Amino acid sequence: MKKFWAVSTKYFDSGHVKVNLYSVVAEAKPEGGMTENKTCDHYIDYFDTYEEALTWYEQSKKA
Predict the structure, then answer these.
(1) Which DSSP category does 56 fall into?
(2) Hey, is 51 helix, strand or coil?
(3) Under a CB-based contact definition with an 8 Å cutoff, are residues 7 and 57 in contact?
(4) Does the model's pTM come out above 0.85?
(5) Can you give the pLDDT at residue 60?
(6) Labelling 35: which of 41, 43, 44, 54 has CA 20 to 30 A away?
(7) Are the CB atoms for 25 and 3 separated by under 8 Å?
């Protein structure tokens, strides 16, 4: 098992953006993706290192 880092970004219809950074333990790096629902678009991106995930997290918070 290996540790990966995930950034969850939700873009709400109101213009609000919510971003979370967390670790994930898995055999292989999960596939990122996007889902749409009534209130927001939800993206999840996975990274090999904390530094990569942190950079993406900080950029997403500025959106």
Answers:
(1) H
(2) helix
(3) yes
(4) yes
(5) 92
(6) 54
(7) yes
